[in-house]
Amino acid sequence: MKQTIFLLVFVVILAVRGVTISDFMSRNPTYDNRATPETNVISTLIFRSSIHCASYCTRNDECKSTMYNMNTHSCQLLSVHMDELSVTGPQSYIGWIYYERKFDGMMSTGAITTVDVETTVVSTETTQTAFGKRFKN
Fold first, then answer.
1. What pLDDT, in 10s, does the model give residues 30-72?
2. 78 DSSP assignment
3. Domain boundaries, the chain
């Protein structure tokens, strides 16, 4: 029981501080504390956690990534995946953590793209019920 509680606390800490924030967003520390032009910022909002910030991004089709400041709780929704061309230098203050949105199991990580592959097994056997009797096809 003690080990289960420790593991749960450890997972929550990782989610909040950011390794993988959800199935839809992952952290890319390459662009932590980096600034991007205002034209790439969809909006800046205040959320109590990076998880809430990421959740808001996944509900916006235009949002491709987020910058979340752990100190001020500011959340920037970005219309780009950060790369060398979209970075204008350091942020004006520290504490910004960068997360990228995954699309269809893929996540852009600059020049390298990783793909999650899922295997689905489909059964061709069906069972029909008619008037209380079972028939097997």
1. 999 999 999 999 999 999 999 999 999 999 999 999 999 999 9
2. E
3. 2-116
